[in-house]
């Protein structure tokens, strides 16, 4: 790593277009903080940022680096550097059964297929989910599939965890468990969410607004600023009436 290089992920002058949409233009971000929340309206660019940070998308201009090294070069050397939990579990899950899906994350660590399956079963048992091992992923509910996605990431243990709306389909116990897991994770964790309470206590929250950083600072302050902005926008909206819709 070059001297004085940032140790975390960094975007420099990034422009990203997806289809006809310019999502980011000349975006600069240094993501060194241990816990970072990402908030903002639908379409603000949260998932797009995660796609850049894990190398799924490549910017049309600018660079994405980690520890001062180009992200793609770094990932080629260390495949387990950055892991993404997708917003939609169906974009993430590849294998038919839960244990195979979890075992996938262990193969880069050099484990045999059998060893990886055994570790996957051990993690499931530790979580009281031993009965899920042979279950077809397609037979699980949306929230259960989301749990599988989280466990896959947990077992793969990348150095940086990117969680895209990980709480969205979880029940209350599942949300509490995930919040606890995040708090205990030794790695850097970035979480995007529309439920601000999940990131309000984070040391850093970034509010994205139409692909730009609107606010960046302590979670409590940035969440309060976003809430105030939403309240203001709601107050200035004309009141809609349901009259006539129901008859
Ligand atoms: N596959 C795609 N092709 C083209 N444009 C896309 C695609 N996915 C997203 N976009 C556009 O990119 C912009 C950013 O979308 P993105 O999914 O990153 O937002 P988001 O903040 O994650 O939104 P949400 O809160 O709804 O998940 C939006 O204008 C969106 O319409």
From TrEMBL:
Q: Which PROSITE patterns match?
A: ABC_TRANSPORTER_2 (PS50893)
Q: Does the keyword Cell membrane apply?
A: yes
Task: Extract the Pfam families matched here.
Answer: ABC_tran
Residue stretches making up the ABC transporter domain: 9-235
Matches recorded under SUPFAM superfamilies: P-loop containing nucleoside triphosphate hydrolases
* Highest taxon listed in the record's lineage: Bacteria
| Stated family | Belongs to the ABC transporter superfamily.
Q: What name has this protein been given in UniProt?
A: Energy-coupling factor ABC transporter ATP-binding protein
Q: Which species is this UniProt entry from?
A: Comamonas terrae
